[in-house]
Amino acid sequence: MIETCSRKCMLFGTVSLGILTIVILILESHLADSLSGSHKMKNKTFPTENNSTCWQHQKYSIIKECHPCSDFEIKSKSIGVCIHTSFKEILKCANGETVTRSCDRVAYLEERAFWKFTIWSFAIGSASSIAVMLRTRVLNYRARRKARIALSNGAI
Question: Cα 111 to the chain's mean position, in Å?
Answer without folding.
Answer: 5
